[in-house]
Design a protein that fits this description.
Elements lengths: L6 H14 L6 H14 L2 H27 L2 H17 L1 H15 L1
Helix pairs in contact: 1-2, 1-3, 2-3, 2-5, 3-4, 3-5
Length: about 100
């Protein structure tokens, strides 16, 4: 019983595998992107699935780090740094997603 491919399924797989393989810098996100790209079903869906987790996590840290620090200014700066770090880590995942999406078509 094969489920229909979708960007949401690909995104969930990418998040799960990224969390499990966090200790493999570069290769962990590449594997997560490849598996998520295959689950997404196409290159376009795989690219969307690769960008959404980084953007969601970055925006979450950006807005809620002020709550964690107690100082809005400091939390805002820390959140901006977290947002940038989330976006810079997307490179290997995006490469893997494109390869996985191309193999799924």
């Amino acid at each position: 019983m094969n489920k229909k491919p979708s960007a949401l399924r690909g995104m969930l797989w990418m998040i799960l595998i990224s969390v499990l393989l966090f200790w493999l810098p570069g290769i962990g996100p590449l594997i997560a992107g490849f598996v998520g790209g295959k689950k997404a079903g196409s290159v376009g869906s795989a690219i969307i699935a690769a960008f959404l987790p980084a953007i969601i996590v970055g925006v979450f840290f950006f807005f809620f780090s002020a709550t964690l620090s107690g100082f809005p200014g400091l939390g805002f700066i820390a959140g901006a740094g977290s947002f940038v770090m989330a976006l810079t880590g997307i490179g290997p995942m995006l490469i893997g997603a494109i390869i996985g999406g191309a193999m799924a078509e």
